[in-house]
Amino acid sequence: LVERSFKNEQNAFGHELNLWLPDGRNVLARVTTFLLREENAVSGMLLTIKDQKLLNELQNNLQRSMKFGVIASLASSISHEIKNPLSSMAIHAEILNMRLEDVEIENKEALNKSLDVLQNEVKRLNRIINQFFNLARIKKTDLNAININAVLEDVITLVSQQAIERNIKIDTDFSDGIEKIYGDPDQLKQVFLNIVLNAFQAIHNGGTVTMGTQMNGAHLEVRIKDDGCGMTPEVQERLFELYFTTKHDGGGIGMAICRNIIEAHDGEIEFESREGAGTTFRISLPRISHTTQLHINALRRTAMKA
């Protein structure tokens, strides 16, 4: 590109090239050349190289933020339209239930069962709606430099009693040389807690959950592994799908929230699972030097001022 610019004496704008760095990393770069002239003769060149991957991430994150902003506005506008009728249904179902206790009528047992179904379904709808609002609501991310090992230790403390009751052993393999990352400890704790509790439910008659951390290139990696029943191919394909669940009392929103939280931290979440052999989740979070979160916040402030 440089040679062609000199040869044709023409500037090159916005060429995308794959560059290999000395450490072996492959970087997608946008390269621009600008020829410098003295007395109508080319005397040099200004070469600019921009990390296109970072620019793409910034754009994608901004678009994702705008999308969830629309969802949050929609959720707020319809909340009363949905929840108020459900509240009325719950109240009147309870009134009917109380009045039936003092009335002798035919098929009273069948009516009581129907009322129970109605009340349970209203509760289930309320739970699903609340979960949807939790997903749609834009929560201010409280970014701090945090030690991910400390966050995982908090999760272990929260589930330790349940692990004892289920005869589940929790093993840890935390790296001592782990770097701090920018993150919201409460949101990340929610992700890890959700995965660990799902692992507990996949383990029958005792088992082991292993939690580990390590630095992996430009990222910090968290691993949560269980030796439970594993997932079928069908479940694996739909795991992060909104409202998909295999639990009779589940809302099917937990893993969707987990993925959104990790993506909001510029991270990735993936898993491997085999039926009868357990599941391993890997959560990758960027080093402080590689996060785009601070840039995204700056863009949001600029957009609001505009």
Automatic annotation (TrEMBL):
The keyword Coiled coil applies. Transmembrane segments: none annotated. It catalyses: ATP + protein L-histidine = ADP + protein N-phospho-L-histidine. Signal peptide: none annotated. It is an enzyme of class 2 (transferase). Keywords: ATP-binding, Coiled coil, Kinase, Nucleotide-binding, Phosphoprotein, Transferase, Two-component regulatory system. Residues 93-135 form a coiled coil. It holds the Pfam family HATPase_c. InterPro entries: HATPase_C_sf, HATPase_dom, His_kinase_dom, HisK_dim/P_dom, HisK_dim/P_sf, Sig_transdc_His_kin-like_C. The keyword Transferase applies. SUPFAM superfamilies: ATPase domain of HSP90 chaperone/DNA topoisomerase II/histidine kinase, Homodimeric domain of signal transducing histidine kinase. Its EC number is 2.7.13.3. GO terms for molecular function: ATP binding; phosphorelay sensor kinase activity. Residues 77-289 form the Histidine kinase domain. This is histidine kinase.
